[in-house]
């Protein structure tokens, strides 16, 4: 990301100068996409030409993903909880595989690459439904090799860089929650396009800040896309028939496109940029007051036993903004995988174990769904309590 102290930063999508940050927080630690507190300021810029929202890349970003970004390696089946439906937990990899299969018309034996695959849990779930698919995986780290070996042949694995023999090979490339991390989104998409056969299908999932306001301040997400900036970067990378679905995933854009014939397609004219810029400025205002809101509630209820419901990004954010943790007993989370962890040095317990001694519950969930989720958790409703919502 180009930064000039006098004029600001260049937009990673359209190159326009973004000017001064829309949001900056230099106090308590920032929070990463893996729910870890990071001792860095949070800085967010908004581009008024294309609506893109961006955060400066971490120092040594390549080293960070190669050595420190080991997502869900604590167990073979560890994954993020996506939803609870009729009392049954639905995890993210399975949901992503279901959506990809519904969106794509994969021919028998299709060659499919999961680009930026992490452990490769989504391609594993896809293979369970379509064992005929010729699946391959790529990531910028080789830390996931043992996980890949459970379902992907060694010759179909690549780390750090893709082999030249893969160029033009794939009928479809899938990428789940990777583009937001790219300091060069054009280069990221060009790398994917090079691997696809002409007319090949792209299936891409990236966070939707419009559905999940927390993404606005995730410190290791360089890109926080608006539909205008997402369409533009895809068009300029040579993709056509771009379709963006904001309903198929609760908090993400699901994008489908095809590899075009030329190297570059003109970016679309966007009449709605101004409205997306206004939305982004509103998110900045929300987060600018969030720390004060947490601490004001804490002061009003100081000394009373408390718990945090949700041990992911929002829960860690709240914990990082509290000035006194002495009355914080534990985190609560419905994810079995989260329950195997400690967060901020505290255990993560099932909601059913919530004790009557806890008077105060900080709700660390996506504000768009937090109240509805809490209303459906019986253990939280057993007796009157004070709830904090972002």
Summarize the topology.
Elements: E1 3-4, E2 8-9, E3 23-25, E4 30-31, E5 37-38, E6 42-46, E7 53-54, H1 61-68, E8 81-85, E9 88-91, H2 92-103, E10 111-115, H3 121-129, E11 134-139, H4 145-148, E12 157-159, E13 170-176, H5 185-195, E14 196-207, E15 223-224, H6 227-236, E16 239-245, E17 252-259, H7 273-300, E18 306-309, H8 313-321, E19 328-332, E20 342-343, E21 346-349, E22 360-363, H9 370-375, E23 386-389
Parallel strand pairs: 10-11, 10-13, 11-12, 13-14, 18-19, 18-22, 19-21, 22-23
Antiparallel strand pairs: 1-2, 3-6, 4-5, 6-7, 7-15, 8-9, 14-17, 16-17, 20-21
Helix pairs in contact: 2-3
Care to describe what's here?
- The chain is α/β, with parallel strands linked by helices.
- Helix content is 25%, strand content 26%.
- The chain contains nine helices and 23 strands.
- β6 and β7 form a beta hairpin.
- The longest helix is centred in the C-terminal third of the chain and has 28 residues.
- The relative contact order is 0.13.
Which regions are unreliable across 5 or more consecutive residues at pLDDT < 50? none
Q: What is the CATH architecture term of the largest domain?
A: 3-Layer(aba) Sandwich
Number of helices: 9
Q: How does the major sheet shape up?
A: 7 strands, mixed
Distance linking N and C termini: 31 Å
Rg computed from alpha carbons, rounded to a whole number of angstroms: 21 Å
Q: In what range is the share of β-strand residues? A: 25-35%
Whole-number total of structural domains: 2
CATH class of the largest domain: Alpha Beta
CATH topology of the largest domain: Rossmann fold
The helical percent reads: 10-25%
Query: Care to count the β-strands?
Result: 23
Q: What is the name of the CATH superfamily of the largest domain?
A: Vaccinia Virus protein VP39
Strand sequence of the main sheet, in spatial order? Answer: 12-11-10-13-14-17-16
Based on secondary structure, the structural category is: alpha/beta
Average pLDDT works out at: 91
Based on Cα principal axes, name the global outline. Answer: globular
């Amino acid at each position: 990301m180009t930064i000039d102290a006098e004029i600001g930063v260049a937009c990673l999508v359209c190159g326009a100068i973004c000017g001064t940050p829309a949001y900056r927080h230099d106090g308590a630690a920032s929070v990463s996409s893996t729910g870890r507190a990071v001792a860095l300021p949070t800085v967010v810029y908004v581009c008024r030409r294309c609506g893109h929202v961006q955060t400066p890349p971490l120092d040594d970003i390549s080293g960070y993903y190669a050595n420190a970004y080991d997502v869900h390696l604590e167990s073979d089946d560890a994954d993020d909880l996506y939803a609870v439906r009729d009392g049954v937990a639905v995890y993210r990899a399975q949901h992503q595989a279901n959506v990809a299969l519904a969106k794509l018309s994969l021919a028998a034996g299709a060659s499919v690459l999961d680009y930026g695959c992490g452990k490769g849990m989504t391609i594993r779930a896809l293979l369970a439904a379509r064992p005929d698919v010729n699946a391959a995986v790529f990531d910028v780290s080789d830390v996931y090799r043992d996980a890949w070996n459970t379902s992907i042949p060694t010759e179909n694995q690549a780390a750090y860089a893709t082999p030249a023999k893969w160029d033009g090979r794939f009928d479809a490339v899938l990428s789940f929650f990777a583009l937001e991390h790219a300091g060069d989104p054009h280069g990221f998409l060009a790398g994917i396009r090079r691997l696809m056969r002409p007319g090949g299908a792209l299936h891409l999932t990236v966070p939707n800040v419009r559905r999940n306001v927390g993404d606005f301040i995730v410190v290791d997400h360089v890109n926080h896309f608006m539909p205008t900036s997402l369409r533009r970067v895809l068009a300029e990378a040579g993709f056509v028939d771009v379709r963006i679905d904001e309903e198929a995933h609760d908090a993400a854009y699901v994008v489908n496109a095809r590899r075009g014939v030329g190297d570059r397609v003109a970016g679309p004219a966007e009449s709605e940029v101004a409205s997306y810029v206004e939305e982004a400025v509103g998110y900045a205002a929300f987060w600018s007051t969030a720390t004060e809101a947490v601490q004001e509630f804490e002061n009003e209820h100081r000394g009373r036993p408390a718990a945090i419901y949700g041990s992911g990004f929002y829960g860690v954010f709240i914990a990082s903004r509290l000035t006194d943790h002495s009355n914080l007993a534990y985190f609560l989370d419905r994810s079995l995988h989260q329950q195997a962890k400690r967060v901020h040095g505290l255990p993560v317990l099932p909601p059913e174990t919530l004790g009557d001694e806890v008077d105060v519950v900080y709700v660390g969930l996506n504000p768009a769904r937090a109240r509805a989720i809490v209303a459906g958790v019986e253990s939280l409703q057993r007796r009157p309590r004070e709830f904090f919502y972002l």
